[in-house]
Amino acid sequence: MDIFRLFIISLMPVLKVLLVIIAGLILATQRFDLLGCDARRHLNNMVFYVFYPALIGCSLADTMTLEGLADLWFLPVNVLITCVIGSILGWILVIVTKPPRHLWGLVISCTSAANLGNMLLIILPALCEEKNNPFGGVASTCSANGKAYASLSLAIQIIYIWSVLYFLLRMYANNEVKETNSNNSIIVAANGCTRDVLHDPVGLPQIHNDGNQKVSTTVKFKQLFMKIMRSESLRKIFAPATIAAIVGFLIGIATPIRKTFIGDNAPLRVIYSATELIGNAGIPSITLIVGANLLKGTFQ
């Protein structure tokens, strides 16, 4: 009987998500055409730049404290261990199956980060609404803690994807490299386009001088710093969700700021309430997009 009860409790959140996914699938069909390609793209941008940052920031600001932060040390460690094991399994997979070399990075990346994503942010709050859920406690408390856990996991995931997996994808995608001895340059072929890149074994920006002037270490460091700050990978690491997570941490940990925005007597609680209201649109929106993306040609 306990097994059947546990099955029902675990089934309800998944069923709710599936119903919303089916709704997104129906809305994307030609009959309704409310979630076509353009609509999905615009809605996805709203989720990425507005809904998810608001949801993540409010979730962490409401539940994260200095004491609670120490209890979550296992989360980044868990993500790291998961990704390391996934990367090893992905490497074994490409060695055994031997796909085209330019797909190695994609296979390893998908294997490494397969279980990282938005699904926790969807499933955990829905699971907390069920009676006798495995996490116990009041549904509102369970939902708040679940959102904070999932939000922190999502922020760590973004950093990992754009710092490690993005590098792997680019490295294997640009595998057609031809070295030439003339002019100490290399020709890089990627996606059918070729360009000449000045050879620089350490990746430092090239500094030209007439041979009489010595470039100081300060200038070299400044140019290297500017190159790093302008890099595409760094900009992607600091995605809106990551920035929202940092802001949520600061508000939750700093007690004076927390009392200003959160609480019945907070003078600026209306800002937090409005941001939370915007963030609540993130979960149904991304679930509808998932359903719309399932649509294939025969259903249109």
From TrEMBL:
Pfam family name, one: Mem_trans
Functional summary from the UniProt entry: Involved in cellular auxin homeostasis by regulating auxin metabolism. Regulates intracellular auxin accumulation at the endoplasmic reticulum and thus auxin availability for nuclear auxin signaling.
Main location, first listed in the record: endoplasmic reticulum
Record-linked InterPro entries: Mem_transp_PIN-like, PILS1/3/4/5/7
Family per similarity comment: Belongs to the auxin efflux carrier (TC 2.A.69.2) family.
Source organism, top-level taxon: Eukaryota
Membrane-topology annotation of the record: Multi-pass membrane protein
Keywords associated with the record: Auxin signaling pathway, Endoplasmic reticulum, Membrane, Transmembrane, Transmembrane helix, Transport
Transmembrane segments: 6-27, 47-66, 72-96, 103-128, 148-169, 237-257, 277-295
Protein name (database record): Auxin efflux carrier component
GO biological process annotation, one example: endoplasmic reticulum to cytosol auxin transport
Keyword Transport tagged: yes
Gene Ontology cellular component terms for the protein in this record: endoplasmic reticulum membrane
Compartment(s): Endoplasmic reticulum membrane
